[in-house]
Known about the structure:
By secondary structure, the protein is of the alpha+beta class. The protein has helices at 3-6, 49-59, 67-85, 128-134, and strands at residues 17-29, 35-41, 91-92, 96-103, 119-126, 138-141, 150-156, 170-176, 188-193, 201-203, 210-211, 215-219, 226-234, 247-250, 255-257. Strands 9, 10, 13, 14 and 15 form a 5-stranded antiparallel β-sheet that branches. A 4-stranded antiparallel β-sheet has the order 7-8-12-11, with no helix packed on it. α2 (49-59) crosses α3. It is globular. The model is unreliable at 1-15 (pLDDT under 50).
Amino acid sequence: xxxxxxxxxxxxxxxxxxxxxxxxxxxxxxxxxxxxxxxxxxxxxxxxxxxxxxxxxxxxxxxxxxxxxxxxxxxxxxxxxxxxxxxxxxxxxxxxxxxxxxxxxxxxxxxxxxxxxxxxxxxxxxxxxxxxxxxxxxxxxxxxxxxxxxxxxxxxxxxxxxxxxxxxxxxxxxxxxxxxxxxxxxxxxxxxxxxxxxxxxxxxxxxxxxxxxxxxxxxxxxxxxxxxxxxxxxxxxxxxxxxxxxxxxxxxxxxxxx
Length: 258
Protein backbone atom coordinates (compact mmCIF):
# COMPACT_ATOMS: atom_id res chain seq x y z
CA UNK A 1 0.00 0.00 0.00
CA UNK A 2 1.33 3.45 -0.84
CA UNK A 3 0.39 7.07 -0.22
CA UNK A 4 -1.85 7.20 -3.29
CA UNK A 5 -4.00 4.27 -2.18
CA UNK A 6 -4.06 5.41 1.44
CA UNK A 7 -5.41 8.79 0.42
CA UNK A 8 -8.50 7.28 -1.20
CA UNK A 9 -11.66 6.63 0.76
CA UNK A 10 -12.20 3.46 -1.28
CA UNK A 11 -8.77 2.30 -2.42
CA UNK A 12 -8.48 0.76 -5.86
CA UNK A 13 -6.40 -2.36 -5.23
CA UNK A 14 -7.11 -3.94 -8.62
CA UNK A 15 -4.10 -2.14 -10.09
CA UNK A 16 -1.77 -3.14 -7.22
CA UNK A 17 1.08 -5.47 -8.06
CA UNK A 18 2.95 -7.98 -5.92
CA UNK A 19 6.35 -9.11 -7.20
CA UNK A 20 6.94 -12.82 -6.64
CA UNK A 21 9.67 -15.30 -7.52
CA UNK A 22 9.21 -18.95 -8.43
CA UNK A 23 11.21 -21.76 -6.83
CA UNK A 24 11.31 -25.43 -7.73
CA UNK A 25 9.42 -27.48 -5.15
CA UNK A 26 11.73 -30.07 -3.62
CA UNK A 27 10.76 -33.73 -4.12
CA UNK A 28 7.57 -32.78 -5.98
CA UNK A 29 6.76 -33.73 -9.56
CA UNK A 30 3.55 -34.08 -11.50
CA UNK A 31 2.37 -37.48 -12.74
CA UNK A 32 3.79 -36.73 -16.17
CA UNK A 33 7.25 -36.16 -14.65
CA UNK A 34 7.22 -32.37 -14.94
CA UNK A 35 8.72 -30.29 -12.15
CA UNK A 36 6.50 -28.07 -10.00
CA UNK A 37 7.26 -24.62 -8.60
CA UNK A 38 5.95 -22.48 -5.77
CA UNK A 39 5.90 -18.70 -5.40
CA UNK A 40 7.22 -16.42 -2.67
CA UNK A 41 6.94 -12.63 -2.48
CA UNK A 42 10.04 -10.56 -3.24
CA UNK A 43 10.25 -8.28 -0.23
CA UNK A 44 11.37 -4.77 -1.20
CA UNK A 45 12.34 -3.60 2.28
CA UNK A 46 11.46 -3.68 5.96
CA UNK A 47 9.40 -0.77 7.29
CA UNK A 48 9.09 0.46 10.85
CA UNK A 49 6.14 2.06 12.65
CA UNK A 50 7.81 5.41 11.99
CA UNK A 51 7.70 4.75 8.23
CA UNK A 52 4.02 3.88 8.36
CA UNK A 53 3.26 6.91 10.53
CA UNK A 54 4.86 9.16 7.90
CA UNK A 55 2.78 7.45 5.18
CA UNK A 56 -0.36 8.20 7.17
CA UNK A 57 0.64 11.83 7.70
CA UNK A 58 1.24 12.26 3.97
CA UNK A 59 -2.40 11.40 3.29
CA UNK A 60 -3.73 14.07 5.66
CA UNK A 61 -5.91 11.45 7.37
CA UNK A 62 -4.64 12.48 10.83
CA UNK A 63 -4.15 16.21 10.42
CA UNK A 64 -2.78 17.84 13.56
CA UNK A 65 -0.90 14.74 14.70
CA UNK A 66 2.85 14.19 14.54
CA UNK A 67 4.60 10.99 13.56
CA UNK A 68 5.87 10.71 17.14
CA UNK A 69 2.32 10.89 18.52
CA UNK A 70 1.05 8.24 16.12
CA UNK A 71 3.91 5.90 17.00
CA UNK A 72 3.43 6.53 20.72
CA UNK A 73 -0.26 5.56 20.59
CA UNK A 74 0.59 2.59 18.38
CA UNK A 75 3.15 1.27 20.87
CA UNK A 76 0.73 1.59 23.78
CA UNK A 77 -1.95 -0.26 21.79
CA UNK A 78 0.54 -2.99 20.87
CA UNK A 79 1.52 -3.45 24.52
CA UNK A 80 -2.11 -3.77 25.56
CA UNK A 81 -2.79 -6.31 22.79
CA UNK A 82 0.29 -8.37 23.66
CA UNK A 83 -0.72 -8.48 27.33
CA UNK A 84 -4.20 -9.72 26.46
CA UNK A 85 -2.95 -12.30 23.93
CA UNK A 86 -0.32 -13.76 26.26
CA UNK A 87 -2.96 -14.12 28.95
CA UNK A 88 -5.23 -16.24 26.79
CA UNK A 89 -7.38 -13.85 24.74
CA UNK A 90 -8.00 -13.83 21.00
CA UNK A 91 -7.48 -10.23 19.92
CA UNK A 92 -8.97 -8.91 16.68
CA UNK A 93 -6.56 -6.19 15.54
CA UNK A 94 -8.66 -5.12 12.58
CA UNK A 95 -6.52 -6.77 9.92
CA UNK A 96 -6.79 -10.14 11.63
CA UNK A 97 -6.72 -12.07 14.89
CA UNK A 98 -3.71 -12.45 17.16
CA UNK A 99 -3.44 -15.45 19.49
CA UNK A 100 -0.88 -17.32 21.61
CA UNK A 101 0.84 -20.36 20.12
CA UNK A 102 2.91 -23.00 21.91
CA UNK A 103 5.57 -24.94 20.00
CA UNK A 104 7.47 -28.07 20.93
CA UNK A 105 6.30 -31.52 21.99
CA UNK A 106 5.18 -32.94 25.35
CA UNK A 107 5.90 -36.50 26.48
CA UNK A 108 2.55 -37.13 28.18
CA UNK A 109 -0.73 -35.53 29.24
CA UNK A 110 0.84 -34.79 32.64
CA UNK A 111 3.96 -33.10 31.23
CA UNK A 112 4.90 -29.62 32.41
CA UNK A 113 5.99 -26.78 30.17
CA UNK A 114 9.75 -27.04 29.60
CA UNK A 115 11.48 -23.90 28.29
CA UNK A 116 14.23 -26.12 26.90
CA UNK A 117 11.75 -27.92 24.63
CA UNK A 118 8.77 -25.57 24.39
CA UNK A 119 8.25 -21.92 23.50
CA UNK A 120 5.35 -19.47 23.51
CA UNK A 121 4.90 -17.07 20.63
CA UNK A 122 2.18 -14.87 19.14
CA UNK A 123 0.57 -16.07 15.91
CA UNK A 124 -1.63 -14.21 13.45
CA UNK A 125 -4.57 -15.22 11.28
CA UNK A 126 -5.68 -12.74 8.63
CA UNK A 127 -9.27 -11.58 8.66
CA UNK A 128 -11.98 -11.53 6.01
CA UNK A 129 -11.25 -7.95 4.88
CA UNK A 130 -7.55 -8.67 4.32
CA UNK A 131 -8.32 -11.86 2.42
CA UNK A 132 -10.76 -10.03 0.17
CA UNK A 133 -8.19 -7.32 -0.58
CA UNK A 134 -5.46 -9.91 -1.17
CA UNK A 135 -7.66 -11.70 -3.70
CA UNK A 136 -7.61 -8.55 -5.83
CA UNK A 137 -3.82 -8.20 -5.93
CA UNK A 138 -2.17 -9.18 -9.22
CA UNK A 139 1.08 -11.15 -8.67
CA UNK A 140 3.86 -10.39 -11.15
CA UNK A 141 6.39 -13.14 -11.82
CA UNK A 142 9.87 -11.61 -11.77
CA UNK A 143 12.36 -12.40 -14.51
CA UNK A 144 15.25 -14.69 -13.67
CA UNK A 145 13.41 -15.90 -10.58
CA UNK A 146 14.61 -19.50 -10.65
CA UNK A 147 18.20 -18.55 -9.74
CA UNK A 148 17.28 -16.71 -6.57
CA UNK A 149 18.53 -18.22 -3.30
CA UNK A 150 16.05 -20.25 -1.29
CA UNK A 151 16.60 -21.54 2.25
CA UNK A 152 14.78 -24.85 2.75
CA UNK A 153 15.75 -25.82 6.30
CA UNK A 154 17.75 -24.51 9.26
CA UNK A 155 18.84 -26.81 12.10
CA UNK A 156 20.49 -25.78 15.35
CA UNK A 157 22.76 -28.82 15.74
CA UNK A 158 23.49 -28.16 19.42
CA UNK A 159 19.83 -28.37 20.48
CA UNK A 160 18.55 -30.45 17.57
CA UNK A 161 15.72 -27.94 17.12
CA UNK A 162 14.47 -25.80 14.25
CA UNK A 163 13.26 -22.87 16.36
CA UNK A 164 16.31 -22.19 18.53
CA UNK A 165 19.79 -20.74 18.06
CA UNK A 166 22.66 -21.72 20.35
CA UNK A 167 25.51 -19.17 20.40
CA UNK A 168 28.85 -20.88 19.70
CA UNK A 169 26.97 -24.00 18.57
CA UNK A 170 26.77 -25.26 14.99
CA UNK A 171 24.12 -24.30 12.45
CA UNK A 172 23.25 -26.40 9.41
CA UNK A 173 21.38 -24.74 6.52
CA UNK A 174 20.12 -26.45 3.37
CA UNK A 175 18.69 -24.78 0.29
CA UNK A 176 19.10 -23.88 -3.35
CA UNK A 177 21.52 -21.32 -4.79
CA UNK A 178 22.50 -20.27 -1.25
CA UNK A 179 26.27 -20.08 -1.73
CA UNK A 180 27.34 -16.86 -0.01
CA UNK A 181 29.64 -15.20 -2.52
CA UNK A 182 30.32 -11.82 -4.10
CA UNK A 183 32.11 -8.52 -3.51
CA UNK A 184 29.12 -6.34 -2.64
CA UNK A 185 29.27 -4.97 0.90
CA UNK A 186 25.94 -6.52 1.87
CA UNK A 187 26.88 -10.11 0.94
CA UNK A 188 26.80 -12.42 3.96
CA UNK A 189 24.79 -14.65 6.29
CA UNK A 190 22.66 -12.57 8.64
CA UNK A 191 21.15 -13.32 12.03
CA UNK A 192 18.44 -10.65 11.98
CA UNK A 193 17.10 -9.60 15.37
CA UNK A 194 13.40 -8.99 14.77
CA UNK A 195 13.05 -6.76 17.85
CA UNK A 196 16.26 -4.71 17.71
CA UNK A 197 18.06 -4.14 14.40
CA UNK A 198 21.20 -3.01 16.24
CA UNK A 199 21.55 -6.59 17.55
CA UNK A 200 21.59 -8.08 14.04
CA UNK A 201 24.85 -9.95 13.31
CA UNK A 202 26.40 -10.51 9.89
CA UNK A 203 28.74 -13.43 9.17
CA UNK A 204 31.06 -12.97 6.18
CA UNK A 205 31.65 -15.79 3.70
CA UNK A 206 35.22 -16.24 5.00
CA UNK A 207 33.83 -17.31 8.39
CA UNK A 208 31.42 -19.93 7.01
CA UNK A 209 32.80 -23.47 7.37
CA UNK A 210 30.76 -25.14 4.64
CA UNK A 211 29.60 -22.79 1.90
CA UNK A 212 28.00 -24.43 -1.16
CA UNK A 213 24.98 -23.77 -3.33
CA UNK A 214 22.94 -26.38 -1.42
CA UNK A 215 24.38 -26.32 2.10
CA UNK A 216 25.86 -23.87 4.59
CA UNK A 217 27.33 -24.84 7.96
CA UNK A 218 28.84 -22.43 10.44
CA UNK A 219 29.26 -21.55 14.09
CA UNK A 220 26.42 -19.47 15.51
CA UNK A 221 27.90 -16.11 16.55
CA UNK A 222 27.47 -14.61 20.00
CA UNK A 223 23.89 -13.31 19.90
CA UNK A 224 21.90 -11.31 22.41
CA UNK A 225 18.74 -12.93 23.77
CA UNK A 226 15.74 -12.38 21.53
CA UNK A 227 13.96 -13.42 18.35
CA UNK A 228 15.88 -13.88 15.08
CA UNK A 229 15.43 -14.55 11.37
CA UNK A 230 18.07 -16.16 9.13
CA UNK A 231 18.85 -14.20 5.97
CA UNK A 232 21.25 -14.85 3.09
CA UNK A 233 22.54 -12.12 0.78
CA UNK A 234 24.56 -13.36 -2.18
CA UNK A 235 25.64 -12.60 -5.74
CA UNK A 236 25.69 -16.29 -6.64
CA UNK A 237 24.85 -17.15 -10.26
CA UNK A 238 24.90 -20.36 -12.23
CA UNK A 239 27.36 -18.80 -14.66
CA UNK A 240 31.05 -18.31 -13.86
CA UNK A 241 30.58 -14.57 -13.34
CA UNK A 242 28.69 -13.43 -10.21
CA UNK A 243 25.54 -11.34 -10.47
CA UNK A 244 26.02 -7.58 -10.24
CA UNK A 245 23.09 -7.15 -7.88
CA UNK A 246 22.75 -8.94 -4.56
CA UNK A 247 19.95 -11.45 -4.08
CA UNK A 248 18.23 -11.89 -0.72
CA UNK A 249 16.32 -14.73 0.89
CA UNK A 250 14.98 -14.71 4.45
CA UNK A 251 13.88 -18.01 5.96
CA UNK A 252 10.26 -18.08 7.09
CA UNK A 253 10.90 -19.59 10.55
CA UNK A 254 11.69 -17.47 13.60
CA UNK A 255 14.41 -18.56 16.03
CA UNK A 256 14.82 -17.84 19.72
CA UNK A 257 18.04 -17.16 21.62
CA UNK A 258 17.43 -17.59 25.33
